[in-house]
UniProtKB/TrEMBL annotation:
Keywords associated with the record: Membrane, Transmembrane, Transmembrane helix
Lineage, opening ranks: Bacteria, Bacillati, Bacillota, Bacilli, Bacillales
Domain PLD phosphodiesterase: 155-182, 321-348
UniProt source species: Sulfoacidibacillus thermotolerans
Identification of the protein by name: PLD phosphodiesterase domain-containing protein
GO biological process, one term: cardiolipin biosynthetic process
SMART domains assigned to the protein according to its UniProt record, in alphabetical order: PLDc
UniProt keyword annotation of Membrane present: yes
Length: 408
């Protein structure tokens, strides 16, 4: 058999393995979400956090979804010119219907309404609900449209962003999707920015719309002032640009005292993990908060493969109990903070379309610490001696699943 034949066979075998792994990840995620979607067994804390002024921008943090949805809907109904809404998941339930009715009403009143949601993430949402009136600009983002797109890593990216911008003056971004479950039963974090900083959120929406919409008329981009205290980082999978990962690594490497991280799925690449380990070794208090049991069984098992090394290197791990914590946040040295849509996993950091806001502001950082400390009341700290003596079958399962980490 010739060398070319061997190479050809090897190529098709490799492609087959990649497809099988992708299908495995997709199916396991769907199945685990189906069976692990549960009600919270705790009363989620509803912190009353005061509004913060950051260079003429009014900044409001949210840790309870129903309060967030109330304010989002109020701002939508107050819109005069333009509404831009983008959500990874938009459920056809009471909350989802309230948002759809709100944007539909404003479109009838003459407000320009743009809607984006990820088509793959909303496969189980009824088709009728995903139809909007003709006077609403709609994009159902499709990761792949042709069979060969499946072999292009850029086409496997999903639109994981959650963004709302009203009249270019008010912007929301964070971890909350749109739905009853997320609003009342999950612990997440979102931020509202009112002021010049919202224009940069609008600009990010425009960039995504113009790059992926089938409509011939493009939106007009407006660039706001680049405040040094509020910065926007947008991952663009099509252009293979992933600044959120670099933002995290740089901030971690500069840490001197304390790093507080919250993420629903902890599957970092080696560079991110090494940054955290280096910080712990130089005496930084590194604390990681993750759900004890998330909505993705596979992600949980893969995350556990990192726990032993983290604990041995001095990183403290806190397991959030009784509810799904879905926040994607970090705060460092009571100065730097980030809130957004990116998890600390490969899919978010070097895969999907994501959006994070960075704050260089002590007041924002103080509130982020208050939130982290409040969440600790629902956590138990994982100890190294406990972890190394976990059941052998659990260790074996982690070993078997570990090759899947590049796909999550």
């Amino acid at each position: 058999m010739s060398l070319s034949t061997h190479l050809e066979d090897g190529f098709f075998i490799a492609i087959g393995i990649i497809i099988c792994l992708q299908v495995t990840v997709i199916l396991s995620s769907a199945i685990s979400t189906r069976f692990r979607r549960r009600r919270s067994s705790i009363s989620l804390g509803r912190l009353q956090l005061p509004e913060i002024i950051v260079k003429d921008n009014r900044v409001q943090l949210y840790t309870y979804g129903m309060n967030l949805y109330r304010d989002m809907l109020e701002d939508i109904y107050s819109a005069k010119k333009c509404i831009c809404i983008e959500s990874f998941i938009w459920k056809a339930d009471r909350i989802g219907t309230a948002f759809k009715e709100a944007v539909t009403k404003k479109a009838r009143e003459g407000v320009d309404v743009y809607v984006i949601f990820d088509n793959f993430a909303n496969m189980v949402v009824p088709s009728e609900f995903k139809r909007f009136p003709a006077n609403i600009h709609l994009m159902r983002y499709k990761a792949w449209r042709r069979l060969w797109d499946f072999f292009d890593p850029r086409r496997l990216a999903r639109d994981h962003r959650k963004l709302l911008v009203i009249d270019q003056q008010i912007g929301y971004v964070g971890g909350y999707n749109i739905g009853d479950l997320y609003g009342a039963k999950w612990r997440d974090t979102h931020v509202r920015i009112a002021g010049e900083g919202a224009k940069n959120l609008y600009s990010s929406f425009v960039d995504f719309w113009n790059a992926h919409s089938d409509e011939s008329d493009h939106m007009t981009k407006v660039t706001g002032s680049l405040f040094p205290y509020i910065r926007l980082y947008a991952n663009d999978a099509t252009r293979l640009m992933f600044p959120i990962r670099s933002m995290y690594i740089e901030a971690i490497d500069l840490a001197k005292e304390r790093i507080l991280l919250t993420t629903p799925y902890f599957i970092p690449d080696r560079f991110v993990l090494n940054s955290l380990i280096r910080a712990a070794k130089r005496g930084v208090d590194v604390r990681l908060m993750v759900p004890e049991q998330s909505n993705h069984l596979l992600a949980d098992w893969l995350a556990r493969t990192y726990f032993t090394e983290c604990l041995r290197q001095g990183i403290r791990i806190f397991l959030y109990q009784g509810a799904m914590i879905h926040a994607k946040t970090a705060t460092i040295d009571r100065t730097w903070s980030t809130i957004g849509t990116a998890n600390l996993d490969r899919l978010s950091l070097v895969g999907n379309f994501e959006l994070n806001v960075e704050f260089l502001n002590p007041e924002v950082a103080d509130q982020m610490e208050v939130i982290f400390i409040a969440d600790l009341q629902h956590c138990r700290e994982l100890q190294l001696h406990e972890w190394v003596h976990r059941p052998i079958l659990q260790k074996l399962g982690e070993l078997v699943l570990s090759p899947l980490w590049p796909f999550l």
